[in-house]
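Hi all, long-time lurker, first post. I run a small reading group and we've been trying to get comfortable going from sequence to structure in the token notation. Rather than ask abstract questions, I figured I'd post a concrete chain and ask someone more experienced to write out its structure so we can walk through it together at our next meeting. Sequence below, copied exactly:
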Amino acid sequence: MLVEVEWQKLRAPEIRAIAARPGALAILPIGSLEQHGPHLPVITDTASASAAAIAAARLVADEVPVVVLPGLWLGMSEHHLPFGGTITLDYATLRAVLGCIVRSLVSGGFGRLLIVNGHGGNIDPLAVAVRELAVEYDMPIVACLPWDMAPDEVASIMETAPGAGHACEGEASLMLEIMPDAVRPENFAAALGNQKDDWHLPRGASRFYSFSERRPVTGTMGDPRPATAAKGAAILTAQAQAVAHLIRDSAAWTPPDQIWAPGRGQRSTMGRDQA
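-- Answer (accepted) --
Happy to help. Here is the structure in token form:
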């Protein structure tokens, strides 16, 4: 019998029963609501994160008490605003929303949280938020980006690039697998548009840029024309297996060091032992 892992399909007593088991893990998919050219829906990043999270949870459900929250469709997407169809949070609001979710999970009895991210613009803010929230709530919290977790497998599936761009072959393939009615293959050629990128900073430098600066015609990055549902299914399998491996990795789930505890800086003997 298939174990139900989707929070939204369960009743409250069933979720409480999962949370009461040792090692209970909540998974939060997070993506965005942003433009993905003329061929992919604006929910692409959230849909892909949710699909990977649910598929991974099903792989470990017989071993781990796990439940997957509905995908958080708001992320940091201000760099896509010039193309329309985009709703974005700022960092302070995203951090506050994540804090409320973590606080609710702790109240509900969950001891661990995995954030499965489908949007590149969330990578940096999640890295900061996860570090802060883990210590604040004394809870192991891990964030991951499935697109980066199985690079060799994904590269072997793709024809035009080794990994994901934006509304590219990889994302188009995945959406053909999980949400085909929302994909417009007849627009794939038009989506290729202007792929020229003349804007580069020296290595080690960073700054804000919008997609209208780097991809002024279509706001896309990559060639979706070779996309197929079969490729999407293979990508999803590789991502789910990689996320499942992370869930099983005990090194990822050690309790966070309570660095802000009173007197914490006086407890280490390393300095005295080395003196």
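A couple of things your group might point at:
Residues 229-248 form the longest helix (20 residues).
The CA atoms of residues 124 and 191 lie 27 Å apart.
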